[in-house]
């Protein structure tokens, strides 16, 4: 497998971040921008098409944008077939599901988050309560669980049979020198193969008809992670950031790279400088790719980041966009007229 950069990046090189981006009118992905007047918008990661539909329904009924996006992602959190979010999420290396989530409300510039939360299906709802009922921004581990239980959430086993089977297969194939016998069949089923090592998340951001912005990011994190590992999703400025005067951004993908670069904050900061949402996402990815060069273990043989990272952005004018490190991804958008998946822009093109 070989990977090639987009043509315009070949001309300028990674070090010239400020001049290597195409303008929105030149970009083949410019169709992702809204050219009409500002209106209600909902943008989410590619696994969020149901979330954008639900959130838009609630925006039309006059709901606060934060309540709307949380209701949207709750659908995914409660879906046992979604292995990267909530119930059914892939566990840590000990077989325990740990969830992270954050919320941010533009009109009040307030936030709440939980991390390493066990036994609660809907961490986004707990994060909202952290924002509304405490003077804190983040609760973790046992403290987050006790807080959830105090507010009436019920403990449940979040490890589904599907996720357990994938975890056991990972354990059995991890080493030939431990006490786990190899699986009866060395041939992985097509259904399990994608789950042996993965990370995924849902991010959802919205703009209502009053110009108010809000967002949520929720995840089960990196599969088979060290117990207690926290990714970018519950970190305000990394997995999510909202500035009601500018715009909002959320992220999925390698959390560690995002945390080190305050990715979602950078996207919003670039939008504040006048860049379109898509351009802001690409410029942030350029920055992350450049700093990743300082960590050779994270690079492929071409010297480029050997991981995926995605950003989704929405500005105050109702313009939206998305970009990812490597080609081949989509994101969900409800523009007030239609709800569909759109092609994400990308920094590098993957050729198989």
Report what the structure shows.
Helices cover 28% and strands 24% of the residues. The chain has 352 residues and is of the alpha+beta class. An eight-stranded mixed beta sheet has the order 5-4-3-7-6-2-12-13. A six-stranded mixed beta sheet has the order 1-14-11-10-9-8. Strand 3 and strand 4 (110-117) form a beta hairpin. The N and C termini lie close together (5 Å).
Please outline the helices and strands.
Blueprint: E1 2-5, H1 7-12, E2 41-45, H2 49-60, H3 65-77, E3 99-105, E4 110-117, H4 123-133, E5 138-140, H5 141-150, H6 161-173, E6 201-207, E7 213-219, E8 240-243, E9 247-253, H7 255-261, H8 263-272, H9 277-292, E10 309-315, E11 320-326, E12 330-334, E13 339-343, E14 345-351
Parallel strand pairs: 4-5, 11-14
Antiparallel strand pairs: 1-14, 2-6, 2-12, 3-4, 3-7, 6-7, 8-9, 9-10, 10-11, 12-13
What characteristics describe this protein?
single chain; 352 residues; alpha+beta; 8-stranded mixed sheet; 6-stranded mixed sheet; disordered N terminus
In short:
This protein is of the alpha+beta class and 352 residues long. It contains nine helices and 14 strands.
Instruction: Give the helices and strands as they follow along the chain.
Output: EHEHHEEHEHHEEEEHHHEEEEE
How large a portion of the residues is in β-strands, by DSSP E? 15-25%
Structural class: alpha+beta
How many helices? The count is 9
For the sheet with most strands, the description reads: 8 strands, mixed
């Amino acid at each position: 497998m070989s990977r090639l950069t987009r043509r315009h990046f070949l001309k300028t090189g990674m070090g010239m971040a400020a001049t290597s981006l195409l303008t929105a009118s030149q970009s083949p992905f410019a169709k992702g921008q809204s050219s009409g007047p500002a209106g209600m918008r909902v943008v989410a990661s590619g696994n969020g098409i149901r979330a954008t539909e639900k959130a838009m329904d609630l925006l039309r009924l006059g709901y606060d944008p934060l309540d709307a996006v949380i209701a949207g992602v709750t659908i995914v959190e409660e879906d046992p077939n979604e292995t990267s979010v909530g119930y059914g999420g892939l566990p840590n290396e000990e077989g325990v599901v740990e969830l992270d989530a954050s919320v941010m409300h533009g009109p009040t510039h307030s936030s709440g988050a939980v991390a390493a939360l066990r036994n609660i299906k809907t961490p986004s709802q707990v994060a909202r309560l952290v924002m509304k009922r405490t003077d804190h921004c983040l609760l973790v581990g046992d403290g987050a669980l006790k807080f959830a239980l105090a507010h009436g959430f019920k403990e449940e086993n979040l490890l589904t049979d599907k996720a357990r089977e994938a975890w056991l297969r990972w354990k059995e194939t991890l080493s030939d020198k431990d006490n786990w016998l190899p699986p009866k069949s060395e041939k992985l089923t097509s259904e399990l193969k994608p789950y042996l090592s993965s990370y995924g998340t849902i991010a959802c951001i919205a703009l209502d008809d009053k110009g108010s912005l809000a967002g949520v990011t929720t995840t089960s994190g990196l599969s088979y992670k060290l117990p207690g590992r926290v990714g970018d999703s519950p970190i305000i400025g990394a997995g999510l950031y909202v500035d009601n005067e500018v715009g909002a951004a959320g992220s999925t993908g390698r959390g560690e790279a995002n945390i080190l670069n305050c990715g979602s904050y950078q996207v919003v900061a670039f939008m504040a400088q006048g860049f379109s949402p898509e351009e802001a996402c690409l410029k942030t990815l350029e920055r992350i790719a450049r700093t990743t060069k300082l960590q050779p273990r994270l690079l492929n043989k071409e010297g480029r980041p050997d991981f995926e990272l995605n950003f989704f952005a929405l500005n105050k004018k109702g313009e939206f966009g998305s970009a990812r490190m490597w080609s081949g991804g989509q994101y969900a958008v409800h523009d007030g007229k239609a709800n569909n998946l759109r092609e994400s822009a990308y920094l590098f093109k993957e050729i198989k």
